[in-house]
Write a structure and sequence with these properties.
The chain is globular and about 60 Å long. It has 2 domains: about 80 residues, no CATH class; about 190 residues, Beta Polymerase, domain 2, CATH 3.30.460. By secondary structure, the protein is α+β, with helices and mostly antiparallel strands. β8 and β9 form a beta hairpin. It contains 8 helices and 11 strands. Helix content is about 35%, strand content about 30%. α2 crosses α4, α5 runs antiparallel to α6 and α7 packs antiparallel against α8. The strands form 3 sheets. Strands 5-6-9-8-7 form a 5-stranded mixed β-sheet. It has a 4-stranded antiparallel β-sheet with strand order 1-2-3-4, with helices on one face.
Length: about 300
């Protein structure tokens, strides 16, 4: 692999950052590098970057050495401008994101959501592109007493690119094929919507390879299988995933307070037993905990 430095070393969030373009055969990629910047970067940093999707490469990199964090995007030379813009915003908001992740600083979900809806709702509706809010933010919009740490969006392949265009100035990762740890190779983007000091991370993606989604699957890039409800944000109708999705996820992560808060919303709206059973069937929860959650929501089986 040959690498060329495009920017750096730059400072941000207790890290030293570099941006490079890398070529391996016919493949071209652009990489964020970040390493502990010590006192030179007003560090040490408060925590590792894996919470934002960064990984350690299998071997030391030429810019950051053996402990360098990486985010890599499959992009060409012509994409340098938008990659650099996203890289710089990532550096500028990194301290705020780290404070939110490790110091429990308030996450400006309302600020970000209102700006997101203002920019995205009308244009995507005009283009007949589907999108929705998922995760804990969906449960929060339905009235659950939870504290979302970011905003997850679901959409189609065309919607991914359209949302990125509408949020271009907020992007912290450029729209591109990339590896999301725990998810796989996707076409996606991430943004920090708001000011440098107040806002929330927003992320959206679709799998890079088209496939047939499972029943009620939440993030397949196909909106049809997802069970959705509608709420109003800034007088715009916004679709959100049913709370059963957030309930099962909170149970998997052993967030007991979130489980109780989301369960209240599920019971208020009326449980969707078919959806709950499908989510539990493919959950990593052990059978005993699946049955426990099912009984909490639907009561014991009859007969």
């Amino acid at each position: 692999m040959t690498s060329e430095l495009l920017s750096g070393p730059d400072l941000g969030g207790g890290f030293l950052h570099q941006l490079s373009i890398d070529r391996e055969g016919e493949a071209t990629s652009i990489t964020y590098h970040a390493q502990d910047g010590g006192t030179d970067a007003n560090g040490p940093p408060k925590g590792p970057l894996e919470v934002f999707g960064f990984v350690h490469p299998p071997s030391p990199c030429m810019f950051g050495g053996p402990r360098c964090w990486h985010r890599r995007f499959l992009m060409g030379f012509s994409d340098i401008g938008r990659a650099r813009q996203a890289y710089n915003r990532n550096r500028f908001v990194l301290q705020t994101m780290i404070d939110q992740a490790y110091d429990h600083a308030p996450v400006g979900v309302s600020v970000a959501l209102h700006e997101l809806v203002r920019r995205v709702a009308g244009p995507l509706a005009q283009d007949h592109l589907d999108w929705y809010v998922g995760g804990s933010t969906a449960a929060w919009l339905l009235g659950a007493r939870v504290e979302p740490r970011d905003i997850d969006l679901g959409t189609s392949r065309a919607g991914v690119d359209r949302i990125a265009a509408r949020l271009a100035e907020y992007l912290i990762e450029p729209i591109a094929p990339t590896d999301w740890p725990g998810v796989g190779i996707v076409r996606g983007a991430r943004a920090f919507v708001g000011t440098f000091q107040e806002g929330a991370r927003v992320e959206w993606s679709v799998p890079i390879e088209p496939r047939t989604p499972s029943a009620f699957e939440e993030w397949s890039g196909k909106v049809g299988p997802v069970r959705l409800l509608s709420v109003s944000v800034e007088e715009h109708p916004v679709r959100v995933t049913r709370p059963e999705y957030a309930l099962v996820r909170a149970h998997e992560k052993r967030r007991s307070s979130d489980v109780a808060a989301v369960l209240e919303v599920v019971q208020r709206l009326g449980p969707d037993g078919e959806l709950l059973d499908a989510l539990l069937a493919r959950s990593a929860l052990p059978p005993s905990r699946r049955q426990e959650l099912r009984q909490q929501v639907l009561g014991p089986r009859l007969g």
